[in-house]
Amino acid sequence: TMLRRMTRLLSGARQARHGEQHAALHYHIPLQDLKTVFPQGLPPRFIMQVKTFNEACLMVRKPALELLHYLKNTNFAHPAVRYVLYGEKGTGKTLSLCHVVHFCAKQDWLILHIPDAHLWVKNCRGLLQSSYNKQRFDQPVEASIWLKNFKTANERFLSQIKVQEKYVWNKRESTEKGSPLGAVVEQGLTRVRNATDAVGIVLKELKNQSCLGAFHLLVAVDGVNALWGRTSLKREDKSLIAPEELALVCSLRKMVRNDWHGGAIVLTLSQTGSLFKPRKAYLPQELLGKEGFDALDPFIPILVSNYNPKEFESCIQYYLENKWLQHEKAHTEEGKKELLFLSDANPGQLERLCAYL
Amino acid sequence: MAAPCVSCYAALSCRLFLGGRVSLSQKQGVWKAAAAELQTGTGSQILRLRHTTGVSTKKNVAALRRETYTVDFIKKQIEEFNIGKRHLANMMGEDPETFTQEDIDKAIAYLFPSGLFEKQARPIMKHPEQIFPKQRAIQWGEDGRPFHFLFYTGKQAYYSLMHEAYGKLLEVEKRQNQLQAKGLFSEKTKTKDLIDSRWLIKEELEEMLVEKLSDQDGRIAVRRVTCLVSRSSYYAQFIRLLERLLTLHCGSEEEFVQRFRRSVTIQSKKQLIEPVQYDEQGMAFSTSEGKRKSAKAEAIVYGHGSGRIKVNGIDYLLYFPVTQDREQLMFPFHFLDRLGKHDTTCTVSGGGRSSQAGAIRLAVARALCSFVTEEEVEWMRQAGLLTADPRVKERKKPGQEGARRKFTWKKR
Fold this sequence. Notes:
The complex is a heterodimer.
Chain A: H1 2-9, E1 26-29, H2 31-37, H3 44-53, E2 56-59, H4 62-72, E3 81-86, H5 93-106, E4 110-114, E5 128-129, E6 137-138, H6 140-153, H7 155-160, E7 167-168, E8 174-175, H8 181-190, H9 195-210, E9 217-222, H10 247-256, E10 263-268, H11 284-296, E11 300-303, H12 309-321, H13 333-343, H14 347-356
Parallel strand pairs in A: 3-10, 3-11, 4-9, 9-10
Antiparallel strand pairs in A: 1-2, 5-6, 7-8
Chain B: H1 2-22, H2 28-39, H3 44-64, H4 71-92, H5 101-111, H6 128-131, H7 156-182, E1 197-199, H8 202-209, H9 234-247, H10 254-258, E2 261-263, E3 277-278, E4 284-292, E5 295-302, E6 309-311, E7 314-315, H11 316-319, H12 323-335, E8 343-349, H13 353-368, H14 374-383
Parallel strand pairs in B: 6-8
Antiparallel strand pairs in B: 1-2, 3-4, 4-5, 5-8, 6-7
């Protein structure tokens, strides 16, 4: 526990020193960082926990450590490597992704974080026919939300990066070559109709410019299996739309291809938000389908599994320290065994169990 | 006009009286009603009215009279029962001489299979003494004099029993005093084991004596002054007397006392414990089955492990996403404090999510019996872990929407 308290005082800046000896320990993210780095992307239950405890603590786990190790040793001259985090429901894929994102943010990378790709393929209200490409559809609402969050996350880069082409929005507005990326983002935010195109432009520019080496680019997509699955959106004549017909999905797919260098791509599979996939599917083959698997091949799969005994113990200790577990038996060995059995060392289940304990 | 009415009226009331006499337990109300009829006036219209009321009271009397089975009737029934028993033995191909009541029950259950849940509603063939309620024979002779000397106490059987018991108590005391005087009195504590027997309950005693004991308290008269020394009922007094008899170490009166005790059997001796089997690697394991509603489960519990459970090849966390089901699985292990010590593999089919969980729980509990001491098996049985849940879906009845729900009641 002493070691644990020590690491709890570590701020995010010393993350670079997270090594094997820090496994199963919690580290503390300052709340200020949370607002800048994670305007979107944290799971809602985690946000509730942060609000309750008034502090954000993430557990350092082996998959995240592995990823950090790879990222530290990336060779930016080679094409971007794709890492896919996969695992059962509730094992901690999204939070591992957030850990990695935070690390990269501290290392001054440019973060391109799509919190949940599933949100772009289901329950969209306003679908417009794209002005850029007649066969595709625009999603102004989702695109504008994403642009806003992107702006909050990467303020300082928006003025540094310069656009390399001229983009004409409509008869009256256009963005000149050499103007900062911030202008494109502003345009997308003010003219909601062009938000999707703005997103596409941002992604294209970033991809082209990361090869130049001015910054490192991290593409983090949660629920990437949505890009190759099915949508639940329908046209006016009630016929289904394929994901290829959505402009946002197209631009993302181009982003996730490894034909650029100067950064890394970290992806997460998720069954929870996925459409038309069985509950027990968690392998990349099952969730991505043949098309997605071929598109993402080759990639480095990283399995995120349930807690091992040490991590479980650490999690319980964290809850006890924050006085979250109020039951008398929670301190005893029997109580811990009960929790272990009931949650089967699954982080999500444990969190849900403890919520009412 | 008035005279014949009065005479027929008198005849009626006579009949009422006679009807009242045959069964002793006839209500006083009838007597009172008859008396009232005689006393009131004799106006002609009122007479006519009373005539009709007389008829109606006569009908009531006939209905109120309890069915008395005459001794001849019972004898005839017994004969018919014995003949029927021999016929039944013949039908089943058994020997009529050695055909016991259990054989009769089995034969009836075979010939008349019934799906009714209530055991007492199924067809039975028993000795008439067990079917017809015991009735007291007429307790006075032709001259009206009662046979028993305690008849006028009202509860002759009860008081005669108390008299007998007290007599025995006095005898035993006298004998013990004599032995003590002679010096041969030995303190042999020959109290028979009273753990697996209990006293008769009041209903059983009432049935035995064919008398109602559930009346007011039995007051004891002490020296001409009827003061309430102890406000205890008849039944309690009787039991106290018998216990007093027991404490005096009577050897000879034991049969008398044992007549009033019933045995209480302990159920757990019927529990079947699976033997532990060993597989190739030498790991101890045990298999058993469990059922709940329409789900059947078979569980294999290994002696040493880390608490993993696989259901139909899938991890139990994925198979039972609901916490309630996982709590059901946890119950047997948690009860025996063996949460992380056994590995389990189960197969389950049928039923729904909750009944599958219940079936696995039963199977796991039964399998764990073989790894655990007898005492803990008894605890498990008392906790209800080893009993199969008998609840099944109740049948829908015609005229109702469901098993219990009736159709919406409409006033018009």
